[in-house]
Specification:
Number of strands: 15
CATH architecture: 3-Layer(aba) Sandwich
Number of helices: 10
Radius of gyration: 19 Å
Oligomer: single chain
CATH class: Alpha Beta
Shape: globular
Low-confidence stretches: none
Number of domains: 1
Helix content: 25-40%
Length: 320
């Protein structure tokens, strides 16, 4: 049986990936700095608490793994990652340290495959400040990634470009959403808006920015299926693919209106233009993933939002 390690296994993508791997009959080990790992409670897996910024800990959890899904990273919304120079610095240093240690450990421990979660933040930020911006995998040049987080992810990819003894797959995931999302201070746009809708009117339904940026969102289960297919096609040089859903672009305002509709509640929506907008547009070109993996997303945005809202409502109410 393949021993599969999921770093960042207690996080949003990790919690969903772990459940799908179990359904496929895999022996799963999850590692995370979070303890206790609420998202993994009750699952028949080994859960390890580790700070991957320390190489000794990273090597210990990697040892004995056949395949590593490397999801662990300092992640969050626009303010959490890009609010100021300190946030940029922390994102850069933390993610660089994590990636260096995990990739080095994979090489030393003779891991067969690594699947690395990258980001559209590797694409030039100046090109993301226009409506309708599409990105294919080769569009990283000219190099100008989105802040410290984008730089760290691009350097992580570069490490795998040079690790010729390791088969790898690189997934640049565009705006995933779904169950087990972070709902707190570092929540991204969909879980943050869903939380506000559930808590309204105790928490006002405020949309950051002016509502004009355009996004394309991918439901988490579609994303996980793509990652499993990427493992099948891991190679050297690494196969790099965009994972996203280009079919349903929506403005942040339209997204907020849909979430209000899903909630079946009446509420006043307001905007806070003093909050950061983030990139104006990130639309993934997924033709390589369709061609190389035989994959494409299947879940309409409305359906995915309904499932996510139902999960979030149960989670929030059970925590009160």
């Amino acid at each position: 049986m393949t021993r599969t390690l999921v770093t960042g296994g207690a996080g949003f993508i990790g919690a969903n990936l772990v459940r799908t791997l179990l359904k496929h009959g895999r022996e799963v080990v999850a590692a995370d700095v979070v303890s206790p790992c609420i998202n993994l409670q009750g699952l028949p897996i080994t859960v390890l608490h580790a700070d991957l910024r320390d190489f000794t800990q990273a090597r210990k959890i990697v040892q004995g793994s056949d395949c590593v899904y490397h999801l662990a990273a300092r992640v969050g919304g626009v303010t959490y990652l890009h609010a100021n120079q300190k946030a940029e610095f922390d994102a850069l240093q933390s993610n660089l340290a994590i990636d260096v240690n995990v990739i080095r450990a994979c090489l030393e421990c003779n891991v067969q495959k690594i699947i690395y979660l990258s980001s559209p933040a590797v694409y030039p930020i100046n090109l993301q400040q226009r409506q309708g911006a599409h990105f294919a995998e080769d569009d990283v040049v000219p190099i100008n990634p989105d802040g410290g987080y984008g730089w760290a992810k691009l350097i992580g990819e570069t490490q795998l470009d040079l690790a010729e003894s390791l088969k790898s797959g690189i997934a640049r995931i565009f705006n995933p959403y779904g169950e087990y999302s972070e709902l707190g201070k570092s929540a991204q746009v969909i879980p943050a808006l869903i939380r506000k809708a559930i808590n309204y009117p105790t928490e006002p339904f405020i949309v950051w920015g002016d509502g004009t940026p355009t996004r394309n969102f991918i439901y988490i289960q579609d994303c996980v299926e793509a990652l499993l297919k990427l493992e099948e096609h891991a190679s050297y040089p690494p196969l790099k693919v965009n994972i996203g859903n280009p079919a349903e672009p929506v403005t942040v305002r339209e997204l907020a209106e849909t979430i209000i509709s899903v909630s079946c509640r009446k509420m006043e929506m307001t905007f806070d233009p003093t909050k950061p907008l983030g990139p104006l547009s990130r639309i993934p070109d997924i033709r390589r993933a369709e061609r190389e993996l035989g994959w494409k997303p299947a879940t309409p945005l409305r359906v995915g939002l309904e499932r996510t809202y139902e999960w979030a409502e149960q989670f929030i109410n059970s925590s009160k």
